[in-house]
Design brief:
Shape: elongated
Number of helices: 1
Number of strands: 4
Strand order of the largest sheet: 1-2
Strand content: 15-25%
Length: 58
């Protein structure tokens, strides 16, 4: 059985997910949570950029 790098629990299958520029092998539940957190972070950054009329990218 494979062990999830995020929650530490055993899982049948692990999914590769990019988090902060690094690839992690996590279970499907953690992958969904990490992708949702990443989407919220990107939208938050975009909202701040729009508010400050920032036209470039990092």
């Amino acid at each position: 059985m494979a062990v999830c790098k995020s929650c530490g629990e055993e899982a049948d299958e692990l999914v590769s997910v990019k988090v902060g520029g690094k690839t992690k092998k996590v279970c499907a539940e953690c992958a969904e949570r990490l992708e949702a957190e990443d989407a919220v972070g990107q939208e938050s950054e975009a909202a701040v950029q729009r508010m400050m009329d920032f036209k470039g990218r990092r």
